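User: Design a sequence. Structure:
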């Protein structure tokens, strides 16, 4: 059982020292008045966090805790004068910046891994040659600068191969052997489609066999890391692991738990925590893109939409250039699981509709090598389609024609003539080419293209009167000519720019970010964050099912005490403080870990930590007791610190000024 926590004041964003943190007057406490009234805190008195309380909570009096009881007033102590100075947020941030500048100067190499839904790769550059970014293709480490995100494991769950090699080897296996191996493709989206990720969660391979998800990601990242190290060590003599700064890209739509999942998978892959940075894909793309779209220095205040349109996800954000080469997010980024893979899915569905799912399944299973070749052919050809294209021709696999003859006793040409695809598809048997006409191609592209356009319209409307004239397209799907033309036709009043090597913008930008300080980008919070507290119950105001009685006093539990608001601008190192008071009377409680729940909501101003207000418990802050155990009574201040992509926390005892070990856990 952990020690109970009781907040005595609300959150304040602070930039100075917390030694004399002002608090709102609470009956029975020292009268330390806040400098100004903080909206929404007029009810704050003694509160107690009880996460997960049932809505059917009885309204009869609940006896007070007999072992652990949070107290407002601690005899013989001053709430505003700790015995030892507690470093304020400004001092902590300054110390952090000194340490990080030292780490930045220590880096001799920056290596980035772009772990994509459909394709993955790595890139790197050396100190003194920061702009000379080498891709995975350099030195022949990978067949291309990015390869399919496909992983093949032996039956004993050890690494076999990755990318094109994994595709080829798996489909060359016999059917009995194939069922023994583990084959994963497009597995990245499985964690981003999960509302709450757990460390022990499992995903299934192509044959339906379960496997620990974090292990799959760790093996894949470890392979890319080892391939990168081979060429890096060959390029420069005398390098050590501590000389390399690693950058791992993640989508903007990543949940808090997904971000921690990727961090832990990366460390499990052998990347040292202190040499690891997670970066948001659209932010990395912005760092790479903005210097390349202007012939001269980019002007201060240049505003643009950056659309990172990848194989499986699309991240869209609105940014503005600031002084010193920094970038600020104007409107909150949005993302969705839309990408080039959706066009592939439409093509597969078209083929199933044409010949029947049974025949297509037999072809993909019995002639899997030919199946992969056909899909790769389509993925290459689809980039050539544009508005004035009459048709595209695909090389048809003989194996598919053979299956059709055997099952239906018909040729592909006859099957098309008898189907609803007449006029949309044609088969030329002499050339062994399947001709897909313009109308059919538009039908394959339309679902994903329309969803992306709707997202762009929504984000422009959200930005209101902000004048934006430029859309920058990056990511693999942005290389589709048809997609770009459709976007340009809808946003004809704007300039639509496609970068050279748009598919590498995120990867190369991640390398560039590794040479920059962590505070080079400001972004907006995607959610509202806060803590569940108790406040005096307001009759005819608070929900009856949240009413509880403790020691004769009536409270409303699960009140949302907001610290960060949805859409609020956040800067790296920005710190929020939260003061709590606690007690551990019984000896068996002296070494209990304290857990403080962190909640988030999709609303800007939620009132209660309930599902109806888009709230759920997103993570917990665990505080380890000091070596001598907890005192009978104590007060503490919690620092919630904004990182590049994640929160970090610090926990200080007010009476002693000692910092105790605290860890944020979203998994």
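Assistant: Done.
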């Amino acid at each position: 059982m952990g020690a109970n926590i009781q907040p005595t004041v609300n959150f304040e964003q602070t930039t100075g020292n917390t030694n004399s943190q002002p608090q709102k007057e609470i009956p029975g406490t020292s009268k330390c008045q806040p400098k100004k009234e903080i909206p929404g805190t007029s009810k704050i008195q003694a509160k107690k966090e009880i996460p997960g309380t049932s809505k059917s909570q009885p309204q009869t009096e609940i006896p007070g805790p007999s072992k652990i009881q949070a107290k407002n007033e601690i005899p013989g102590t001053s709430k505003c004068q700790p015995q030892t100075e507690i470093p304020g947020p400004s001092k902590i941030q300054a110390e952090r910046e000194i340490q990080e500048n030292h780490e930045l100067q220590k880096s001799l190499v920056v290596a980035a891994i772009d772990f994509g839904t459909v394709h993955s790769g790595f890139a790197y550059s050396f100190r003194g040659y920061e702009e000379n970014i080498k891709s995975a293709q350099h030195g022949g480490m990978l067949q291309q600068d990015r390869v399919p995100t496909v992983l093949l494991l032996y039956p004993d769950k050890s690494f076999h191969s990755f990318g094109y090699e994994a595709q080829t080897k798996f489909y060359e296996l016999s059917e009995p052997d194939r069922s023994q191996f583990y084959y994963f493709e497009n597995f990245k989206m499985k964690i981003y489609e999960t509302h709450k990720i757990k460390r022990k969660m499992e995903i299934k391979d192509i044959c339906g066999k379960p496997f620990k998800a974090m292990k799959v990601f760790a093996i894949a990242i470890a392979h890319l890391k080892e391939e990168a190290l081979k060429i890096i060590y060959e390029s420069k003599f005398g390098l050590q692991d501590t000389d390399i700064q690693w950058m791992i890209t993640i989508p903007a739509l990543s949940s808090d738990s997904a971000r921690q999942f990727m961090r832990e998978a990366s460390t499990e892959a052998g990347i040292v925590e202190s040499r690891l940075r997670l970066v948001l894909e659209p932010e990395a793309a912005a760092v790479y893109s903005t210097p390349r779209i202007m012939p001269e220095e980019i002007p201060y205040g240049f505003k643009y939409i950056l659309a990172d349109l990848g194989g499986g996800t699309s991240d869209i954000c609105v940014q503005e250039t600031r002084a010193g080469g920094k970038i600020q997010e104007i409107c909150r980024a949005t993302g969705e699981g839309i990408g080039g893979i959706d066009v592939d899915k439409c093509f597969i569905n078209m083929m199933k509709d044409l010949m029947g799912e049974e025949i297509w399944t037999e072809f993909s299973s019995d002639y899997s090598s030919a199946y992969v070749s056909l899909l790769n052919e389509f993925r290459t050809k689809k980039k050539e389609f544009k508005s004035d294209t009459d048709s595209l021709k695909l090389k048809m696999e003989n194996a598919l024609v053979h299956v059709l003859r055997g099952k239906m006793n018909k040729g592909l040409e006859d099957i098309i003539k008898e189907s609803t695809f007449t006029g949309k598809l044609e088969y030329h048997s002499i050339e062994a080419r399947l001709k897909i006409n313009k109308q059919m191609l538009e039908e394959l592209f339309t679902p994903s293209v329309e969803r992306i356009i709707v997202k762009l319209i929504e984000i422009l409307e959200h930005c209101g009167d902000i004048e934006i004239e430029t859309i920058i397209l990056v990511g693999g799907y942005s290389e589709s000519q048809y997609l770009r033309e459709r976007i340009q036709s809808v946003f004809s009043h704007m300039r639509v720019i496609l970068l050279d090597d748009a598919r590498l913008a995120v990867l190369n930008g991640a390398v560039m970010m590794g040479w920059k300080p962590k505070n080079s980008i400001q972004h907006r919070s995607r959610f509202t964050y806060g803590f569940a507290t108790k406040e005096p119950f307001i009759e005819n105001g608070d929900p009856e099912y949240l009413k509880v009685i403790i020691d004769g006093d009536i409270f409303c539990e699960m009140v949302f005490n907001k610290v960060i608001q949805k859409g609020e601008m956040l800067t790296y190192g920005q710190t929020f403080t939260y003061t709590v008071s606690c007690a551990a009377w019984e000896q068996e409680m002296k070494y209990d870990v304290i857990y403080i729940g962190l909640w988030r909501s999709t609303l800007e101003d939620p009132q209660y930590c309930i599902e109806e207000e888009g709230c759920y418990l997103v993570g917990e802050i665990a505080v380890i007791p000091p070596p001598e155990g907890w005192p009978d009574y104590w007060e503490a201040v919690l620092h919630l610190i904004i990182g590049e992509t994640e929160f970090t926390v610090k926990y200080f005892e007010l009476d002693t000024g000692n910092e105790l070990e605290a860890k944020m856990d979203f998994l």
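Residues 3-84 have pLDDT under 50 and may be disordered. The chain has three domains: 5-98+561-665, 108-293+505-514, 295-498.
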